[in-house]
Amino acid sequence: MSYKVETVLKDAVSTIGESPHWDDATQTLLYVDILKGDIHRYDPANGKVDVLHLDGGVGFVLPRKKGGLLAGFGQAFVSVDWETKTVTKLAEVDLGSNIKLNDGKCDARGRVWAGTLDWQLTPHKGSLYCLDIDGSVSKQDENFTIANGMAWSPDNKTMYFIDTTPREVYAYDYDIDTGKISNRRLVVNFNDIPELCSKDVMGPDGMTIDTEGNLWVACLQGGCVAKIEPQTGKLLQKVDIPDAKRITSVCWGGKNLDELYVTTLKMHPTRATFPVIDSLDGSLFRVTGLGAHGTPAEMYRG
Question: Domain of 247: which CATH number?
Answer without folding.
Answer: 2.120.10.30
